[in-house]
Each structure stands twice: as C-alpha cells, then as structure tokens.
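Late entry, evening session. Most of the bench is empty. Finally got around to the prediction I had been postponing all week. Sequence below, unchanged from the version circulated by S.P.
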Amino acid sequence: MTFPIHRPRRLRRNEALRRLVRETRLTADGLIYPMFVCTGTKVRKEVGSMPGVHQQSADQIVEECREVESLGLSAVILFGLPESKDPRGQSSLHAQGVVQRAIEAIRKANLNLLVITDVCLCEYTDHGHCGVIENGEIGNDATLEILAEQALSHARAGADIVAPSDMMDGRVAAIRGKLDANKFENIAILAYAAKYCSGFYGPFREAAQSAPQFGDRRSYQMDPANAREALKEVALDLEESADIVMVKPALPYLDIVRQVRDKFDVPVGAYNVSGEYAMVKAAAQKGWIDEQRVVLEILTGIHRAGADLILTYHAKDAARWLKK
C-alpha cells in the first residue's frame, strides 16, 4: 500500500501545531463595538431584537465603555437617538446633542478608547431617510452641508474618527473640506463606501428608531446585485480623502470585502450588522448552535476575507472568548 508523501494533517495534530501555522489571527484590536445613545440619565433599555444591546443615556454609555476598555477593545462607534426629530435632522448639529454629550462624557472619563461617530440623518429626521426631502425625493446636494456640519460638531466634541453612512454622492469631500477649514485636519474619515440596501438592517432600525416612514433606501444605498459598482464607490471615496473604507453588511458581501482588499492598499472595514447578530443570538437561544464557536468562526471569516477592522455587536463577547 502506497502512503501519501504530502500529509497536511501533520500540522493539525494538536492545538499547539494549529496555533503555530494559523494563517488568520483574530484579535480584539480589530473589533469595534457599536453603541446607541439616548437622552436622559440612568437609561438602559435592551433592544428587543438584539439581546445584550441597549439604548443608553450618556452616563450609562460611559459605564459600558469602561467594560469595553477592560476587555481590550480599542474603539466604539456611537449612534444617536435624539429627543426630537425634524425634516432636516437639525438636532444632529447641536453642541449638546445626544452623541456630542456622550463623546464629551467618554473623554472626561479618560478612557483609552477611540471614539468613532456615525454621520447620517436617518436617526434625526422625522421621515427616517438619510437625507433631506426635495420634491418627494432624497436631495443629495442639499444633504451634504448638514452632514458636514454634523461631522464638525462631532469633531468639536472630541471624536477621533467620523463615519459617514448616508451614501450621498460627494459626502466625503464635503466633510473633509469642512473639517480642514476648521482646523480638524487630523480627524480621520471612515467611509461606509459600499453600503448595500439590505434586509439585514431590520433590528438596527429598531435600535436606532430610524425606519423610513415612506418608501425605502434603494435610490441611495447600493443594489445587492452589483459588485463592480462597489469598487467605483470605494475609489470615489478615496479620491475624496477617505482614510478607511468599509463594506456593509459583511456576511452576504464577503466577495466585495475581498475585491476591495485586493484592489486598494488602505485599511478596509466590514460591518457585521444587526440582522447577522440577531440570527446568531436567536439560534443560540434555541440551542441550535454553539454561540461562541459560530461567532468566532464568522468574525474569522470576515477577517480572512480581507477586513482589517470589524464593527460587530459581538465585540465584547468575542474579546472575552479570545482571552481564553
């Protein structure tokens, strides 16, 4: 009987060997934890479709950020739930807005965390769309100045990175210009460069109270069938001075993550979104899957596809598991 010369199983024989030759190494350093900030004090309300995720007032955000820091995570991203909404999302610009106050509270706590802020209008408009309405449509250019002012207000409050998620054309250039004109040239931009119009955002819209009141977002978020267009969107954002580009969602678009990674020599992010999180949590609660094993496999897959950083609601749990 002839035995094979090549035996890949030699390097799988025990955990020490598997660790030695492991190609993709997932660490807490590359995970970013999303958080939802609301008004008030001592508010901490769990999101029904996202077990373990909460809408929280700034004081509670700080307490959870202490936990995030202790777990070795390096960054959080903040989404705001304002007290009032209007057609133009004006509350997103206020120096005492929900996100701005949360940034300042985190800064005062002297936490060793990067603070990233979502820049968009959907959480602040009474119609739930990511831009202002003009003649029944989402007005692109009319939205840019508001987004730029929002980013500037976040920078003034102490944000390290601003992350436009609206998918308006030209938003990165508008934000970069506004920041630079006000001497915030060192504030980085993480662009949601390839953000698809996805059914996986449902739980987020509950968490952020941002469901559109009419229509949908297909006129500005990307068609799930398109791949080449994603590369065009990324190229345009980089032309406009984006520092980091991101694909959203992650799991149905791992091919896009890989194509972006191969084509562009910049940091690449992926957003492991709310629907992806909720499916895992629901299956785990039913006892159908091993949550720890599945989560780490998912995050490893996203990282293996080419994502340098991953926004994920699993971040805290994953950081704990990775310490074991």
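Two things to note before I forget:
The mean pLDDT is 94.
The first strand starts at residue 31 and ends at 38.
Will write this up properly tomorrow.
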